[in-house]
Structures are given as structure tokens and as C-alpha cells.
Amino acid sequence: MDIKPIKSEADYRATLREIEGLMGSKADTPEGDRLDVLVTLVQAYEARHYPMDYPDPVEAIKFRMEQQGLTVDDLVPAIGRSNRVYEVLNGKRSLSVAMIRRLHRQFDIPADVLIREAEDKRNERVESA
């Protein structure tokens, strides 16, 4: 069977069914390769038709703090002095690129989520100009 683009919801559902049947396929086999290509097509279709909103960066930090039992003091190495951590957590200070890198590296918070804040603020400036 040929691989075709997913153009409709029916195509999408049929591709998901096929993926389900190929889930046990080994890598580097024709079936495994087919599975890989179909998953890529589904991801592209879902990104276009079911876009996901990333969580707010501050909420992501707070969530990670709750998950790992972190305190403000634990964030100091990534963000700066405790007053700066409070400013970030209260939305009074934006994350810098250096903070984003350290938060990602030290606490495994996805960088895309942390970057979103900077992109949103840049888009707000462009729209208001």
C-alpha cells in the first residue's frame, strides 16, 4: 500500500489504525520504516489541525516546583537571588535567555515552554506598533 498525505479526518483515522497494527514492528525493517513515516505524517496533521497551547512559563516552573518539592531557594542558582525568583514567579520579571537555559538544564523544563513568554511579549509589541 502506498503512503499518501493525510488530507481528511477519515485519512487520519485510517492512518492511526494502520499505525496501531504496526506498533510491534522492529526498527530497520520495511514495517518499522513504514511506521516511522506514518507517525511523522500523523504528527504533522495533528500539529496543523489540533495545535497544542504550551503552558504559561511561570505555571510550568511552579508545576515543576510542586512535582519535585522545590523551594524558592532551589531556584536561586537558575534565576538569581530569592527576590528575583519571587519577581519571576509573580510575573513582574521576564525570564532571560540565561535563566531559560539554566531552568531547562537544571530542572528539565522544556525550553519551548520557557521561551514562549519571550515570544508572546515580542508579538504583543509588534501588534501594538
UniProtKB/TrEMBL annotation:
Biological process according to GO: regulation of DNA-templated transcription
GO molecular function: core promoter sequence-specific DNA binding
UniProt domain HTH cro/C1-type: residue ranges: 60-114
Superkingdom: Bacteria
Protein name stated in the entry: Transcriptional regulator
InterPro entries: Antitox_HigA, Cro/C1-type_HTH, Lambda_DNA-bd_dom_sf
Lineage summary: Bacteria, Pseudomonadati, Pseudomonadota, Gammaproteobacteria, Chromatiales
SMART domains cross-referenced by the UniProt entry: HTH_XRE
Signal peptide stretch: none
